[in-house]
Task: structure prediction
Amino acid sequence: EELLGRARASAPRVSFVDNTFSRLLRELLSTLNPFNRVIFEKRLNGAVAIVPFEEALHGILLPLQEQVGQLWHDNHIDVAVEHYVTKHIQQKIFSAMNQLPVAEFGAKVVVACPPGEEHDIAALTVAYRCRVRGCRVYYLGANVPVASLANLCGKVEPDLTILSFPLALSDDKATELVQALANEVSPASNLAVGGHGAIAMRDLFVKYNITVLEDFAELDHKLDRLMRQSSSRA
Result:
């Protein structure tokens, strides 16, 4: 899962002792095999409710997604269980986003996953962090065709478009996609990419003047600059 491991390193330190989150994660994972829906939901809901969401996001939700993905990869849980956990994590992030005020001013940011990419937890996390900082966010989610992305950017004229790449593409597919982004999206918006795949394809992105974000700390720095620029134009 893209950016998830890096997110923990770049996130603010949580106020709870790390062992508390580690113990909770072990308890949550223990409910997945054998699968116990009631205990899983009670523990997850209870934990997220009692800490600030930023701490819950980086101390519980992102590590949980990362570890569940690894369990599925190692054939310790079924893909249906992995999807179940992922949907709960998505719901938590969407719920937190919906409690934030709708920005009428500030930098405009489009967040999406490229064509064929269905894993959107990291992209959703990016959208949340943009919302927290007062950006006007257009979150498009998974598997967005380049033509559709370009069409939207042409209409809303964003200050920045961020794409989430969890995995590197083959050389041919990467070249085709990056050229399409440069030709169709870049004329309407500055482009940035993040994730393990983006970092692996760094040279190709740099060749086409597309910014590669190393982690969430670098994202936050870029967003702060955008918001200052937006304020100065107001």
Notes: Residues 108-233 form a domain with the Rossmann fold fold (CATH 3.40.50.280).
